């Protein structure tokens, strides 16, 4: 909900301060989907608030579950829809949040890109994905957040920063438990670095050179590979923090010996670069996963490089990275 609007309304009713605080606290607790469920409020007030506001700006239209993930199709107030994913890594629960309806960047391996771009999500819509999941898993709660769902978060910069501020002030999720993934908007990488937060940064790299990357990520035509690496070195030099490079291995695209050699050189060039090697998640009509995954992993291991072979959750429910799409 828009807490500012609701607070203004509550003030106009001359409700005591403690009531206002109680309602805001209830909202952030993630225990409620509607005001009607807040039985610690007088009934008239519950009915009045429900008539005038929606507690959450997202509502579940469909839920798909498999062993370790849940994917929800969430409808927004203007009837557009997004997907949001909950991943169970055993020790912690992670919510993968969408930042846009669709995405304008059209990466070749990504289902979201095929939807085109509809609009940015508001801070409220990003936040409410977390509260929606907290309600679903109560009394457990989301321990980690990744902005890796639909959309490019750095293209929704102002709302992203507003969301992070609200999370910091109202939810018990520390900055180090939050990761933002970008396809490589270089000016925003510099701006993000200068913010000096402890939020993790991940780059959808997916290729170790300009030529390969521009085939699968059109953004590379605007932001050149060498300039991207320069911005990543700026990030690690200023933050002294590890930087995560995502690399989905795609058959006959980025999986040759030459690609592997270039990747090794890149990782050796900066010991704060950490590679997440990912099996490509198949997308209808899309590219194919490479069979060289083990060869890449073994060679990186022999070279004592920082990497992990990432377990990809949610493939069977189409909720893994690059598989989120609405209207399919
Ligand atoms: S991978 Fe990310 S940046 Fe690329 S099209 Fe998909 S959502 Fe957009």
What is the H/E string?
Answer: HHHEEEEEHEHEHEHEHHHEHEHE
CATH superfamily of the largest domain: Aldolase class I
For the record, the CATH architecture of the largest domain stands as Alpha-Beta Barrel
Q: In terms of structural class, how would the helical and strand content be classed? A: alpha/beta
| Ligand list | iron/sulfur cluster
Give the strand tally: 12
User: Could you tell me the mean pLDDT?
Assistant: 92
Count of the separate structural domains: 2
- Report the radius of gyration as a whole number of Å: 21 Å
Strand content: 15-25%
Reported by name, the CATH topology of the largest domain is TIM Barrel
Q: Give the end-to-end Cα distance, rounded to a whole number of Å.
A: 29 Å
Portion of residues in helices? 25-40%
- Poorly predicted residue ranges: none
Just give the CATH class of the largest domain.
Alpha Beta
List keywords for this structure.
328 residues; alpha/beta; TIM Barrel; 10-stranded mixed beta sheet; two-stranded antiparallel sheet; binds iron/sulfur cluster
Structural account:
The chain has 328 residues and is α/β, with parallel strands linked by helices. It has two domains: 3-52, no CATH class; 58-317, TIM Barrel, CATH 3.20.20. It has twelve helices and twelve strands. It has helices spanning 3-12, 17-29, 43-52, 111-114, 123-137, 157-170, 186-195, 210-216, 219-222, 225-239, 257-269, 293-302, and strands at residues 58-65, 69-76, 81-88, 93-96, 100-102, 117-120, 144-147, 178-182, 200-204, 243-249, 273-279, 307-309. A ten-stranded mixed β-sheet has the order 1-2-3-4-7-8-9-10-11-12, with helices on one face. Strands 5-6 form a two-stranded antiparallel sheet. The radius of gyration is 21 Å and the shape is elongated. It starts with a helix and ends in a 19-residue tail after the last strand. Residues 103, 105-107, 110, 112-113, 150-152, 183, 204, 322 line the site of iron/sulfur cluster.
């Amino acid at each position: 909900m828009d807490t500012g609007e609701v607070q203004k309304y509550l003030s106009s009713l001359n409700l005591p301060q403690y009531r206002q605080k109680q309602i805001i606290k209830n909202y952030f607790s993630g225990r409620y989907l509607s005001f009607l469920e807040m039985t610690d409020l007088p009934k008239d007030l519950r009915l009045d608030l429900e008539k005038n506001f929606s507690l959450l700006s997202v509502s579940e239209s469909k839920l798909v579950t498999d062993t370790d993930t849940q994917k929800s199709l969430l409808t927004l107030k203007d009837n557009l829809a997004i997907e949001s994913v909950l991943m169970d890594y055993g020790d912690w629960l992670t919510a993968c949040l969408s930042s846009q309806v669709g995405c304008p960047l059209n990466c070749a391996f990504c289902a979201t890109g095929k939807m085109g771009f509809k609009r940015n999500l508001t801070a409220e819509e990003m936040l409410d994905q977390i509260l929606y999941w907290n309600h679903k898993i109560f009394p457990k709660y989301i321990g980690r957040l990744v902005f890796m769902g639909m959309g490019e978060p750095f293209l929704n910069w102002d709302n992203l920063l507003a969301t992070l501020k609200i999370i910091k002030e109202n939810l018990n999720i520390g900055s180090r438990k939050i990761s933002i993934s970008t396809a490589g908007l270089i000016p925003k990488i510099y701006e993000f670095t200068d913010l000096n937060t402890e939020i993790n940064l991940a780059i959808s790299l997916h290729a170790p050179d300009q030529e390969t990357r521009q085939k699968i990520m059109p953004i590379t035509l605007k932001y050149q590979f060498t300039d991207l690496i320069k911005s990543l070195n700026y990030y690690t030099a200023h933050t002294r923090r590890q930087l995560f490079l995502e690399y989905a291995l795609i058959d006959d695209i980025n999986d040759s010996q030459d690609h592997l050699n270039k990747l090794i050189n890149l990782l050796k060039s900066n010991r704060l670069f950490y590679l997440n090697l990912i099996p490509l998640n198949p997308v209808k009509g899309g590219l194919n996963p490479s069979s060289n995954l083990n060869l890449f992993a073994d060679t990186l291991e022999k070279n004592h490089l920082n990497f992990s072979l990432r377990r990809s959750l949610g493939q069977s429910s189409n909720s893994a990275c690059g598989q989120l799409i609405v209207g399919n």
